[in-house]
Design a protein that fits this description.
By secondary structure, this protein is an alpha+beta fold. The chain has one domain: Aspartate Aminotransferase, domain 1, CATH 3.90.1150. Helix content is 29%, strand content 28%. It is built from 3 helices and 7 strands; from the N terminus they run βαββββαββα. It has helices spanning 23-36, 84-92, 117-133, and strands at 3-4, 42-47, 50-55, 58-64, 74-78, 96-101, 104-110. A 7-stranded mixed sheet has the order 1-6-7-5-4-3-2, covered by helices on one side. A hairpin with a 2-residue loop joins strand 6 (96-101) and strand 7. Helix 1 packs across helix 3 (117-133).
Length: 138
């Protein structure tokens, strides 16, 4: 069964509490950020306790620095439109949860060990590719 993180019913005056990031997640985030930094057109910016990753002007993922979404060991990535095969992979990966923020589809990915870094990088890569295909809204 899929984990659901986030809530569409949250009141505007009450913000969701973001858990503190584990020390291990800080190390994993630094490793992932270092890897992604070499990809074309990628920039990183500080964003409310996260390192937001952008492809040109489109944010595609956020790596926790001090706060996380979901659990202390989770990162988030964005996929607006997905193919049937990607949807199937998302639904069948127990480490992936979903949420909706500002009418965009965001997913959480929870890392439990160093062996999860490869899959995390694959999901970030999928999000990076999708950010390159999205049309800019006018």
């Amino acid at each position: 069964m899929r984990r659901k993180t986030g809530s569409n019913a949250q009141s505007k005056t009450r913000r969701a509490k973001l858990p503190l990031v584990s020390e291990q997640m800080k190390a994993w985030s630094a490793a992932l950020a270092s890897e992604v930094a070499d990809w074309p057109n990628v920039s990183a910016r500080s964003f409310f306790g996260f390192t937001a990753l952008y492809r040109k002007d489109k944010m595609f993922a956020a790596l926790p620095r001090t706060r996380a979404m979901g659990t202390p060991n989770s990162l988030v990535f964005k996929l607006v439109e997905t193919s049937a095969s990607v949807r199937s992979k998302l639904e069948n990966d127990p480490r992936v949860g979903d949420m909706e923020m500002q009418k965009a589809r965001w997913f959480t990915f929870e890392l439990a060990s160093d062996s999860d870094l490869h899959a995390a990088l694959a999901w970030i890569g999928c999000s990076y590719e999708a950010a390159g295909k999205r049309k800019k809204l006018k």
